[in-house]
Specification:
globular; alpha/beta; 53% helix; 5-stranded parallel sheet; Rossmann fold; two-stranded antiparallel ribbon; 9 helices
Length: 225
């Protein structure tokens, strides 16, 4: 495991590291599901239900990743969240004189993120939500959950208890933040369907439970569980 950390610390998205992760994550030994999602489409709910269906050996990684990065970098969670899924300059360190704390640059954040994701990948039986994990694990079952804008807005209105105007603003901001995050860190367009094994569009005709069934069936076939 020490060699893994050393490798990731030396290489941020280099071909050497990509080859290493690809080799380690292929096959049923380390089954991984990645869930990319549009904000308000219900991807996090889908992931939780998939984990329940697959059994107790499977674990979801979402907020836990942020918390682990915070611990790794010895920074407060709030500061990490300000960097997470946002585009920031690629600099070694951004100092904030007012708070007197170190902000994590995207370069440093990426190094910690890749370290944590790689350890999760080696553990296996992991469902990773967001963080562009589908770009890191070629052997994973890669799923993207999307929905029409009206569906997403109404979902946010219902669960976040906000107005439609506010929900639309949140959708636009989150979409922009996530797009910039993936472009900045991975140099990829997350909207391209060929990055995924399945793109599932939720609607009144294709529900969350339908999506869960599709993903569970795909996972059982892929990982022979």
């Amino acid at each position: 495991m020490k060699k893994l950390f050393e490798l990731i610390n030396r290489n941020v998205l280099t071909s050497k590291m990509a080859d290493f992760i690809s080799h380690e994550s292929k096959g049923a030994k380390h089954p991984i599901i990645t869930i990319s999602r549009e904000f308000g489409a219900g991807g996090s709910i889908v992931a939780k239900k998939v984990a329940l269906k697959l059994g107790k050996d499977w674990k979801i990684y979402h907020k836990e990743i942020v918390e682990e990065i915070a611990r790794e970098a010895n920074l407060e969670k709030k500061l990490i969240r300000e960097v997470d899924e946002r585009h920031v300059p690629l600099i070694d360190e951004l100092a904030d004189d007012f708070f007197g704390r170190r902000y994590l640059s995207l370069h440093s954040y990426a190094r910690h993120l890749l370290k944590i994701l790689s350890v999760i990948g080696l553990r296996g039986n992991a469902i990773i939500i967001g963080r562009g994990a589908h770009f890191l694990f070629p052997g994973a079952l890669k799923v993207r959950v999307i929905a029409d804008i009206n569906y997403r807005v109404q979902t946010i209105v219902k669960y976040e208890k906000v107005s439609e105007k506010r929900a639309i603003a949140l959708v636009n901001k989150k979409d922009n933040d996530r797009n910039e995050f993936n472009r900045s860190l991975y140099k990829q367009n997350q909207h391209k369907a060929h990055h995924y094994d399945a793109v599932i569009k939720l609607s009144e005709n294709l529900t969350i439970d339908d999506a869960v069934k599709i993903i569970v069936d795909l996972a059982k076939r892929r990982f022979k569980q």
